[in-house]
Amino acid sequence: MSFYTYIHSTPKHQVFYVGKGKEDRAFSRSDRGYLWKQKIEQERGLNIQILADWPTEKEAYQHEEFLIACFKDMGFDLVNQTDGGRGVINYKQSPESRNKKAKKLIGYKHKILSCPKCGQEGGQTSLKRWHFENCIGRRGTFKARATVDGKRVYLGLYHTKDEATNVIIEHYNSVGKPLPQDLLAKRRRKICHQ
Which pTM does this prediction carry? Predict the structure, then answer.
């Protein structure tokens, strides 16, 4: 499939847009920006000219960038919002678009939600999109680990140190092994303080 570069100009042959396309893109009026539509309305017409065919999209993008730079150097007032090529490099939003968005967002308050699993609060859009499906509940921060016969066993995360200690004690009791000295000392201190 071949690509091409094209220009749009007014009925008086003043170039106002440079583009890259394939198939019937040059002749399409959909997916055009606000400034392009405004120019068509002001000038009451449109001339379309395909300038060159290209075997690859990369070459077409390069030619589009070159043409935009040339027309801008010659003083043409282009409605292109970027310098051409793939992506939005050097995108310049029109003042009309900025004002329209600013007016729309003045006084807007995002609805605040709270996750039922972990209690995290945030904006409705962000929590629904990123948090709810990935939430695994409130994670504990205390690790429960035991060493039995020289092998280290991970027993999970718990919310309190006491919970983690109780799980470790239960594990030693279930395998019929004596509690390590440091765990016995912690247990004695806890009993003494009660």
Answer: 0.47
